[in-house]
């Protein structure tokens, strides 16, 4: 029972992965403000109260949506299996299409894929947050499946398994850390998830319903992972969700267990399930994968990047260099002139489009050891410029760079996938280094930050030592668990202290 377009007047025409129209509630609160407010430490009471109202508004917005959950709880198990089968079948079709020579379905080039990673960052960087409020119910067996999901989202405290850490690293690798200028719509899902984190006591069925929807592995996850790998981008964040969200033993199954375990035995189970459905539908609000992918416009993205740089760039160029009779500072002093500036750079031969960017003087100013503008643009911005100059591939990947570095390999070679590149890197390095044994790493202070000596007097370790001291000074299990759960909150769990707290918590709940 998917949403149909005429159910929601004025909504965008692209259905999202829920099959619904992507939109949040435009009520009293801005999602973006709510998102950043909820990421503050020691939340003021007024923000907690506001987030409850925000959540109520979003839930109200779901009332005009229908969803594909079965009406009967007994039918959800087979519904999960059927949904998983359907996704497997659709993915097989996708692979067959690709093997028959079809172009990528999602990403026209690498900058398109990076644009997507930035656009979904507000959601990915609070991954798992909706379940945080349940950690305080650590001694209630009804919530053990759901708490287990939360712990797995946090990688059980292992840094390279923590989903937020993995995504942060992915963004940093490609210069995609600047995403806070995204529109309010991009923050709807994140703000909902952070609000659910604060109000599990008041919105328990809604938390369970949201989780049930979120943990069903969608087709877009598989296609995204496949195409990121193809473009030389690490797909781990996406592939690990497909393995842990699987219908047999993974999060999809645990999400159903969590629902069944929590159903009231005395109170009204029908009313509880009605609220679960409302929570499920929260997944359908905000921007979605398809909308983000379709919103990419390489030309607009380039102009936006140059427009942003012009704020400083209009002061720093010498008057020696002129293009079409105007100095670079004159061109950059008016951002509306950037398209004309680019056209003139092309006309005067500074940029040779639809060719290897190495043939363009403009590109050589940006990239290379002796490039005069080296460091002005970050990796993402350079990728956009590179793809804009290189143009559309004439055939499958035929005009794309063959590795992740700009222009270091012959233009027109096929690009190595991320996995192939990693294998080559590993083969090159494995004879040079000794891999420390896992047994050498402690359970609690399992890792030290890079550059740390591991010495307790090391500044990097002071916080962890203080946490250990605090924990040992506490006299009851309740006090210990309270301290641990406070460090496992969405803004804290990926920090050194948060990871250590998660490891201890995981051990304690068994
Ligand atoms: Fe996750």
Task: Name the overall outline.
Answer: globular
| Small ligands present | fe (ii) ion
Structural class: mainly alpha
Write down the secondary-structure element order: HHHHHHHHHHHHHHHEEHHHHHHHH
Strand content: under 5%
Short description:
This protein is mainly α. The protein contains 23 helices and 2 strands. It is globular and about 80 Å long.
Structure description:
- This protein is mainly α.
- The chain folds into three domains: 5-294, no CATH class; 298-427, no CATH class; 447-509, no CATH class.
- The protein is 51% helix and 1% strand.
- The protein is built from 23 helices and two strands.
- The protein has helices spanning 31-38, 45-61, 76-99, 110-119, 121-124, 144-153, 163-173, 188-198, 204-214, 219-230, 236-244, 251-262, 269-281, 289-294, 298-316, 328-332, 338-347, 361-366, 379-390, 418-429, 459-473, 477-487, 496-509, and strands at 322-323, 326-327.
- Strand 1 and strand 2 form a beta hairpin.
- Helix 10 runs antiparallel to helix 11.
- The longest helix has 24 residues, at 76-99.
- It binds fe (ii) ion.
- Fe (ii) ion binds at residues 127-128, 153, 163, 241.
- Residues 127-128, 153, 163, 241 line the site of fe (ii) ion.
- It comes from Undibacterium arcticum.
- It is an enzyme of class 1 (oxidoreductase).
- InterPro entries: Haem_Oase-like_multi-hlx.
């Amino acid at each position: 029972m998917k949403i149909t377009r005429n159910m929601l007047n004025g909504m965008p025409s692209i259905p999202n992965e829920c099959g619904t129209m992507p939109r949040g509630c435009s009520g009293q609160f801005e999602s973006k403000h709510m998102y950043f407010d909820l990421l503050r430490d020691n939340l003021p009471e007024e923000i907690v109260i506001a987030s409850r109202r925000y959540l109520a508004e979003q839930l109200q917005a779901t009332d005009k949506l229908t969803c594909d959950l079965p009406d009967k709880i007994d039918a959800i198990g087979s519904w999960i299996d059927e949904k998983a089968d359907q996704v497997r079948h659709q993915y097989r079709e996708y692979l067959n299409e690709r093997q028959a020579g079809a172009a990528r379905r999602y990403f026209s080039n690498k900058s398109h894929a990076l644009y997507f990673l930035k656009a979904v960052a507000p959601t990915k960087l609070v991954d798992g947050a909706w379940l945080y409020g349940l950690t305080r119910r650590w001694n209630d067996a009804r919530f053990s499946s759901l708490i287990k999901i939360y712990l797995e989202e946090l990688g059980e405290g292992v840094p390279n398994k923590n989903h937020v850490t993995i995504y942060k690293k992915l963004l940093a690798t490609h210069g995609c850390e600047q995403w806070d200028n995204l529109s309010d719509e991009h923050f709807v899902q994140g703000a909902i998830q952070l609000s659910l984190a604060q109000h599990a006591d008041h919105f328990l069925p809604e938390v369970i319903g949201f989780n049930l929807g979120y943990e069903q592995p969608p087709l877009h996850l598989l296609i995204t992972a496949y195409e990121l790998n193809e473009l030389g981008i690490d797909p781990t964040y996406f592939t690990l969700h497909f393995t842990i969200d699987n219908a047999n033993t993974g999060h999809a199954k645990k999400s159903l267990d969590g629902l069944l375990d929590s159903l009231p035995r005395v109170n009204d189970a029908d009313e509880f399930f009605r609220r679960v459905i409302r929570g499920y539908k929260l997944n359908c609000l905000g921007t979605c994968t398809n909308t983000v992918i379709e919103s990419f416009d390489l030309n607009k993205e380039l102009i936006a990047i140059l427009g942003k740089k012009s704020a400083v760039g209009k002061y720093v160029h010498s008057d020696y260099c002129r293009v079409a009779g105007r100095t670079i500072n004159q061109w950059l002093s008016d951002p509306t002139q950037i398209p004309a500036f680019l056209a003139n750079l092309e006309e005067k031969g500074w940029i040779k489009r639809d060719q290897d960017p190495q043939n363009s003087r403009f590109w050589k100013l940006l990239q290379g050891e002796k490039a005069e503008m080296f460091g002005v643009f970050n990796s993402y911005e350079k990728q956009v410029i590179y793809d804009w100059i290189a143009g559309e591939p004439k055939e499958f990947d035929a005009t794309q760079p063959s590795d992740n570095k700009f222009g270091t390999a012959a233009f027109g070679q096929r690009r190595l996938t991320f996995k192939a590149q990693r294998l080559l890197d590993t083969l090159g390095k494995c004879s040079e280094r000794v891999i420390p044994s896992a047994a050498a790493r402690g359970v609690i202070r399992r890792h030290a930050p890079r550059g740390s000596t591991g010495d307790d007097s090391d500044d990097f370790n002071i916080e962890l030592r203080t946490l250990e001291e605090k924990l040992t000074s506490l006299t009851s299990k309740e006090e210990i668990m309270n301290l641990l759960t406070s460090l496992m909150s969405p803004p804290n769990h990926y920090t050194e202290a948060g990871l250590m707290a998660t490891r201890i918590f995981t051990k304690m709940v068994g």
